[in-house]
Amino acid sequence: MQATASTVTPAELHEYIRHGKRVDLVDVRTPVEFQELHVQGAVNVPLDRLEPAAVMKARKASADEPLYVICRSGSRGRQAAQKFHQAGYPNVINVEGGTLACEAAGLPVVRGKKAMSLERQVRIVAGSLVLLGAALGWFVHPAFIAISAFIGAGLVFAGITDTCGMGMLLARMPWNQVKPQGSPSASKQPLANAPQCAVGSGQQGCGL
Q1: Side-chain half-sphere exposure of 3, counting CA atoms within 13 A
Q2: N or C, which end of the chain is more exposed by having fewer CB within 10 Å?
Q3: Where are the alpha helices (DSSP H) in 47-200?
Q4: Rounded average pLDDT over 127-139
């Protein structure tokens, strides 16, 4: 049976930080989204490249310590938490509302270059393909309506399963990546070279 992802509210997370509780936070958005805005102390491990065992191995914390996952608004964080649970790591908690809710709750954030969110990219691509299918079906051949039908079915499937194949594909596109700093292998080992920043420790070092 699939485990239900545990959650924490931004307000609760903020209280943990204020009281010096250790908070290991993994942001599972794309590198470009992370660069634009992220909660201070978060480490970026994109959902499409997330390997639970590798993340846990890289942690400098006891297995009993909870690991928190976060995305933009909560959906990808929930998927990430479930991925950890299925891999045998139950003590992984999703941050409700994601980065946007944390910013609204007053958690310290780091801002960078403006970027387009993955959710917005999916809406643009899906809408464009539906419009293209309808136009081709009207002006060229009725069979092209199948394009719109396929995209519609995919969106229904994504809504039911809370997974989005188009989103996962777009996440791998070059414009959603950030040029790695330092060695070419840095992007392949996001935790190995991550800044040491435990947001709840009261220090400049985290357990990841």
Answers
A1: 20
A2: N
A3: 52-58, 75-86, 98-104, 118-139, 145-161, 165-171
A4: 93
Query: Helices in 70-117 by DSSP H: which ranges?
Result: 75-86, 98-104
Query: Tokens 């191995």 correspond to what residue?
Result: 57
> Which pairing describes strands 67-70 and 92-95: parallel, antiparallel, or unpaired?
parallel
State pTM to two decimals.
0.69
* 182 φ/ψ sector (left φ>0, alpha ψ -120 to 50, else beta): left
Buried/exposed 168-201: b ≥16 CB within 10 Å, e otherwise: bebbeeeebebeeeeeeeebeebbeebeebbbbb
* Domains of the chain and CATH, by start: 6-115+178-188 (3.40.250.10), 118-171 (no CATH)
pLDDT of residue 208: 55
CA dist., res. 11 & res. 106, Å (int): 9
Average pLDDT, the chain: 82
* Distances 158 to 166, 186, 195 between C-alpha atoms, Å: 9, 32, 34
Cα 83 from chain centroid (whole Å): 12
Contact 43, 25 (CB under 8 A): yes
164 has catalytic annotation: no
